[in-house]
Specification:
Radius of gyration: 20 Å
Strand content: 15-25%
Low-confidence stretches: none
Shape: globular
Helix content: 25-40%
Structural class: alpha+beta
Largest sheet: 8 strands, antiparallel
Number of helices: 9
């Protein structure tokens, strides 16, 4: 479940890109280089040779603290951390500690900030991509409530397109090119466009078809709480594993009379079991209604 390669983008403000890169370089025993590109990127080359990037993003509402109050500020405070390629067991501790270091340096998030997780698409097939579409469609409502996606961010991580889901399950495409055709159906813009409108969904396959061949999950509010970030990564990896290994998946919605029970049992089913993932389950069930132990109140 945790073996797939992935990358993460974490948006925040409160400190400048230059300061964020300095904090990262100190922690990673690395060096910093400013790219002076269209994103005013600061690159940190860590001691292991991997590159961490700190880029601007126009969607971030830039703020800083002044006398304990958050006040608007300039675009140098727009920061998107773009990680190198990770594997969970080898890199999660480093990522979590860097997040803590950035928070201690004054970084914070607001409702304009998001987290995007890119999953390696190398092993995905027609079957697994269809599975992924149906898995996300079936859990749309549960995930959006559990993750408390801010209304300000809904434009950037819409729920799964019901029309697309219907077409995928009615036509049952047998080739990746056919799925790609259905994904872009109805859009007038060029599919080669980086900021294509189809990308702004919880599940983004534009990055799979025309980008770096990654499956992107965009439905996470940004946070500099290291435990929550870990929970989001574990969920993403578990969803990816389910899509890859399950013979088929249905878009049918789960029972909703007890949200916490539905989420807990689902998380257990996809591998988030035992003490190792206890905190992950707590974070992912916290905002749901119901009782995690019993499906029906009478029990």
């Amino acid at each position: 479940m945790l073996t797939a390669k992935f990358g993460i983008e974490i948006e925040f403000t409160g400190i400048t890109r230059a300061r964020a890169a300095e904090v990262a370089a100190d922690f990673l025993n690395g060096t910093t280089e400013r790219a002076y590109d269209s994103y005013d990127t600061f690159k940190v080359k860590a001691a292991d040779g991997r590159i961490w990037k700190f880029m601007s993003d126009g969607s971030i509402k830039t703020e800083r603290k002044e006398n304990g109050r958050k006040v608007p500020t300039d675009k140098s405070y727009s920061v998107e951390l773009v990680s190198p390629i990770f594997t969970y067991r080898e890199d999660i501790d480093t990522l979590q500690e860097l997040i803590r270091q950035l928070r201690h340096a004054g970084a914070f998030t607001n409702n304009s900030c998001g987290i995007h997780i890119h999953l390696d698409g190398a092993n995905h097939t027609v079957r697994s991509i269809r599975n992924f579409i149906n898995i996300i469609a079936s859990k749309n409502d549960l995930f959006y409530k559990a993750l408390q996606i801010a209304p300000e961010r809904m434009h950037y991580c819409k729920k799964m397109d019901e029309v697309l889901v219907s077409k995928i399950n009615r036509k049952r495409p047998k080739t990746m090119s056919r799925i790609e055709s259905l994904w872009y159906e109805g859009y007038m813009e060029s599919t080669s466009r980086h900021y294509h409108s189809s990308r702004y969904h919880f599940l983004n396959l534009h990055s799979f078809f025309t980008g770096h061949h990654t499956v992107e999950l965009r439905g996470f509010n940004s946070t500099l709480h290291a435990g929550k970030v870990r929970s989001y990564i574990v969920l993403a990896l578990a969803l990816n594993h389910q899509a890859l290994t399950q013979k088929s998946a249905s878009a049918k919605k789960p029972q909703v009379e007890n949200e916490k029970f539905a989420m807990r049992t689902y998380l257990n089913r996809i591998g988030l079991i035992g003490d190792e993932f206890k905190n992950c389950r707590e974070h992912l069930c916290k905002h749901l209604d119901g009782n995690a132990a019993w499906r029906f109140r009478a029990a």
